[in-house]
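Researcher: Quick test of sequence recovery. Tokens follow.
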């Protein structure tokens, strides 16, 4: 059997209402030389029957049995079956635009240093408008169109939309595939690839319609809670290519819940947080768990430590970046945005 140009991994659980449209959006795209490995992951509705019908009508579709072991197991099951040089992801309730795979393969062929690409996305819901916070997140990832910017901002949030990605199979296997645990498997993969020196970026074109719903895993599964993202950030901030891997102390700008949670996990990784920076006058001059809190004006010039910006409000983060640059701080060398 000839090796197809790209294999799409598509796990599905109880997706009877949407999975046929998702699969057909791939089959009718401009790349005809593809294989779609669907994984029925323990569905209790008619998903298995829908997938079986799709496979019967188009030989490019195959159905694997995930036995209800979860998303990561389903993805790795399909990855073991994939023989294509490129592996793409797709969720069972999203819709690929016709040129999605073609544009992804073209970029990967043209840029050998890339381990993978995502695409810009269009969010949609069937029942109500998409939340402003999720829309802002999509706008952010849609702007990460250079490998340099994505690498620089990798600790802010997960920088790729998982179901939009297309990856080199060799790079994915070298990184160990998807890892299972009490953490977000997609963010862990991006950070692992970047830590190994691979490059990633998003294509500027909107090539995936990304469905939002109240039941999406990022809202219902504790693996995608803020605390688990912070644990993952702390792990990669302190190892490999991370800015704290050399053991230097750090200052955390932001003593709110995110900053304090990140500090907790940094301490677990052996890092030393020596100061907080805060603008709130009631916090400046105090100590939080023994760590002194200073004002931005007391920060001074870059020194032997590293500054982590842990402020989730986007406009505030942008202002802090601008101020630090004006004071002679260099992003990446002297400071890193981590929220």
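Model:
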């Amino acid at each position: 059997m000839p090796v197809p140009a790209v294999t799409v991994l598509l796990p599905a659980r109880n997706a009877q209402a949407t999975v046929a449209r998702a699969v057909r959006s791939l089959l009718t795209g401009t790349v005809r030389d593809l294989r779609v490995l669907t994984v029925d992951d323990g569905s209790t509705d008619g998903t298995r029957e829908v997938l079986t019908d799709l496979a019967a009508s188009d030989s490019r579709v195959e159905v694997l049995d995930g036995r209800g072991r979860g998303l990561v197991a389903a993805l790795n099951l399909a990855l073991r079956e994939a023989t294509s040089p490129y592996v793409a992801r797709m969720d069972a309730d999203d819709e690929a635009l016709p040129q999605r795979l073609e544009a992804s393969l073209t970029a990967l062929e043209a840029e050998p240093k890339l381990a993978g690409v995502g695409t810009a996305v269009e969010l949609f819901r069937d029942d109500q408008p998409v939340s402003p916070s999720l829309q802002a997140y999509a706008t952010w990832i849609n702007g990460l169109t250079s490998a340099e910017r994505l690498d620089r901002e990798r600790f802010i949030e997960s920088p790729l939309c998982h179901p939009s990605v297309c990856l080199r199979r060799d790079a994915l296997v070298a990184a160990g595939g998807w890892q299972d645990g009490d953490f977000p498997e997609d963010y862990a993969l991006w950070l692992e690839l970047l830590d190994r020196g691979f490059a990633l970026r998003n294509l500027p074109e909107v090539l995936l319609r990304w469905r939002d719903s109240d039941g999406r895993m990022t809202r219902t599964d504790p693996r995608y809670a803020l605390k688990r993202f912070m644990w993952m950030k702390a792990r990669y901030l302190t190892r490999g290519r991370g800015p704290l891997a050399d053991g230097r102390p750090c200052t955390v700008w932001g003593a709110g819940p995110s900053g304090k949670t990140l500090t907790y996990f940094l301490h677990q990784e052996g890092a030393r947080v020596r100061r907080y920076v805060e603008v709130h006058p009631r916090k400046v001059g105090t100590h939080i768990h023994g760590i002194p809190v200073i004002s931005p004006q007391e920060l001074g010039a870059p020194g032997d430590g590293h500054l982590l910006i842990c402020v989730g409000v986007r406009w505030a983060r942008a202002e802090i970046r601008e101020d630090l640059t004006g004071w002679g701080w260099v992003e990446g060398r002297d400071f890193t945005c981590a929220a």
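The longest strand covers residues 199-211.
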